[in-house]
Amino acid sequence: MAQSMEMAKAFNPALESFQMGGLDKMFPTMSKDMMEMMFGNAFNVGGLDAKTRLFITLAALVMQGAQAEPQIKLTVRHALEAGATEKELAEVVAQMSVFAGVPAMMKGMELVRAAIADSEGDA
Hints:
Radius of gyration: 15 Å
Helix content: 55-70%
CATH class: Mainly Alpha
Number of helices: 6
CATH topology: AhpD-like
Order of helices and strands: HHHHHH
Mean pLDDT: 80
Largest sheet: none
Distance between the termini: 29 Å
């Protein structure tokens, strides 16, 4: 994120005061069919479906910790659109306690809950 911010500022000095908060809201949620077409069927026909790919992405982002907050929220929105349940999302994040540690897992749970609440508010 820091590197991206520096690059954006180099392109446009007016971005000096730009804050990343809310970045996840700037990107629309793709429909499940669009995700399957772009990621599932295009790269590996008969391979992982969009929901499974998003679970893997969420796990990797939770391991990165709080620095991936906007990406975690965006991934949760897409996973819900792809058919993920709250219980499945919680299980993915809980599994990361073994690999990323309890603090990263707790922050991940907090972000997943916030993303779910936001998506319910948008409905």
